[in-house]
Design brief:
The chain is mostly helical and 285 residues long. The protein has ten helices and five strands; from the N terminus they run H-E-E-H-H-H-E-E-E-H-H-H-H-H-H. Helix 6 crosses helix 8 and helix 9 runs antiparallel to helix 10.
Length: 285
């Protein structure tokens, strides 16, 4: 997951400090059970996913954490009329719109073939999509529970074009849609955490976000082939000596490239089927 501190500084225990912030915030959020109850479900990677936070708690968790992080970087948040901000927001909202059209709504709870492929569970959840750009050399981005995002300008210098920027944002949006932070905080709170198993768990979530993000790209009008090229560039940076923050705890470059090359034709085929009317979008509210 592209994480603010999620992929940069780590706690002494070896786990990302960012999730420790989310855990602290979660413990301060009043207990409530609005919407879907927490529990086990089949996650986006067809694995068992345990969510211990209710939809309302997840939304509030993201709100509070975002406020804390934005306060920390308040002197470096770029204004809304900055060209970089306009570019990031335009790209992000195209992806969000595509995600909204392709996920079930209460009026259409039956999953489409595409929904079964990416296996998202968003009914009962509310997203407040928002994105800010922070002036920083960090090669990084993040999306919190509930949809609030930030992009550091360092990663804009790596993305050659809007398709590659969409790769980053679709990956981050996928984490929110898949409730990955909810799942991670649940595991942290349980106290049953093994460092080696957590690294494997990190890689599972990253692969799921790659998969979902890649499928979202063509539906938002972006070329998924550029996702492969973007991650190749990121891999080259990591081989330069210092691993970029954005790549910490991710699958190996070889595994990521192999998976994406297999998913690209499937994503394009899904878009073609959608354009031909074989996949019906969910009704918009």
């Amino acid at each position: 997951m592209a994480k603010l501190v999620l992929h940069s500084r780590r706690s002494r225990s070896g786990r990302p400090a960012f999730y420790r912030l989310l855990l602290v915030v979660f413990l301060a959020v009043p207990a409530c059970d609005i919407g879907l109850p927490p529990g086990n479900q089949e996650g986006p990677g067809r694995r068992s996913q345990t969510l211990g936070i209710s939809p309302q708690q997840e939304l509030e968790l993201g709100r509070i954490a975002y406020s804390k992080i934005m306060s920390k970087y308040r002197d470096r948040i770029l204004p809304g009329d900055d060209p970089q901000v306009k570019r990031v927001r335009s790209t992000a909202y195209r992806i969000v719109k595509a995600a909204g059209a392709l996920t079930p709504s209460p009026a259409n709870a039956e999953p489409t073939p595409l929904q079964r492929e990416i296996n998202l569970h968003v009914q009962g959840y509310r997203f407040e999509w928002r994105v800010n750009v922070i002036e920083s050399p960090q090669v990084n981005a993040f999306c919190l529970p509930g949809g609030k995002m930030a992009v550091f300008t360092g990663i804009l210098r790596v993305a050659d074009n809007d398709d590659q920027l969409a790769t980053v944002l679709a990956h981050e949006i996928a984490h929110a849609l898949a409730h990955h932070s909810n799942e991670r905080v649940t595991r942290e709170e349980s106290g049953q955490v093994n460092v080696l198993l957590e690294k494997r768990f990190d890689r599972q979530q990253e692969s799921e976000a790659d998969h979902i993000g890649l499928f979202l790209m063509p539906f938002a009008g972006y070329d998924p082939h550029e996702a492969v090229r973007f991650w190749q560039r990121m891999g080259q940076l990591s081989r330069g000596g210092r691993i970029p923050e954005f790549l910490s705890d991710h699958p190996s470059d070889e595994r990521r490239m192999r998976d994406m090359e297999q998913w690209v034709p499937k994503a394009l085929a899904a878009k073609k089927a959608f354009d031909e009317g074989h996949i019906t979008p969910a009704p918009q509210r």
